[in-house]
Input
Amino acid sequence: MELTAGHVWLMVAAALVLFMTPGLAFFYGGMTRAKAALNMMMMSFISIGMVGVVWVLWGASMSSGEGFLQMVGNPFATFGLEGVTSPDGLIKVGYAATFAIITVALISGAIADRAKFGAWTIFVPVWVTLVYCPLAYMVWGGGLFGPEGAIGKALGPAIDFAGGTVVHINAGVAALILVLIIGNRKGFGKDPNHRPHNIPFVMLGAAILWFGWFGFNGGAATTAEQGGLIWVNTLAAPAAAMLGWLVTERIRDGHPTSLGAASGVVAGLVAITPACANVSPVGALCLGVVAGVASSLAVGLKFRWGFDDSLDVVGVHLVSGIIGTVALGFIALPVEGVGGGLFYGGGFTQLWAQLAVAGMAIAYSAVLTTVIALAIHKTMGFRVSQEQEVVGVDLSLHAETAYEFGVGGHGGSFQPLHELITGRPQGEDGVAVPAAAPVDVASNGKKTAAGKESVGA
Output
């Protein structure tokens, strides 16, 4: 088959979406403490590795084709992509894989600074298999919410063009469940060192996410007209959301922030994701403003309600994902003059469909994530020790630091890192010698011996 412009565009779009995950690593990495930045970025990168393998072996098969009870595809139908040989099929598999990758990576921001890396590497493939793939099948693969699905026939097909339910509501609910199971960071709401350590990284990550999002939303466009509408909406909604977030900050706190601008962009991108091909540009602007204001207010609830959603996954992705999904019941454009949202004379039909798919995503993700997370937490444990958390998960889990403040050496068995991790100095021959200055947990990871640099940032 000849390579067409459509094939090329879908491959480019897939590359853009894959690039979003390293962008997410910068976005999240800058929002953590300095001593947890590498671990946070590694949680995104390992998601690429784990999901890439899962998707080729059974993930793609589970999210499409013939299914069980309209809820999940047969994992053995095209195991290892056996029989998927057409250019269209393989390119679509690659594009779909990038969505699964970033969905699970989004969850990691909620448990920053305190999750075991080994536990995360178990959670990622299991969650993608049992939660992401079935939900993707139900919404996109011809399952319950499709035109031929049981709920789709009863209420009308739900609209989720690029992942408001499958990606953002799904990830936001899973993030909340993990936070409740793992618990809060030491000093949550009290320790000022929990503030973001590198705002330029956050803004760079937001810029990469916005850039990649044009492929995220636009990759599945079928016509030039639809592609143009998606592009404009993917520009308009996050722009309006950023302004809405900054105005909210200015009124509430007295000053707009760079972190608020970056977070507002992401909130707008989340909200427009399910609606990008089905609302007008003015509708996208309105949707963006609502999402920006709502998420700006929602991120503060974690302090009031006492759950440590470290990097605001719940406040941004769950809240704006619900807003974007449900809003389609009001502002969805009619298709060839038929249907549409309530504001376009379509009645309540689309609204019921949107409420149903949002509710299903919340319930399914909550139940399955709880089972998976509890199984891991009760066996191998999902949380690092208090000592590891205080020293920093970069050092305690990876023997590396993102920044070298004069201590010398980046990882491995270099003396300063060995001492900080084990509390025992290391001789020139590489053999540990008796401890002289153990890590002082109460001092937040600072060494008690004179002359030693602190990594307590």
Observations:
- The longest helix spans residues 349-379.
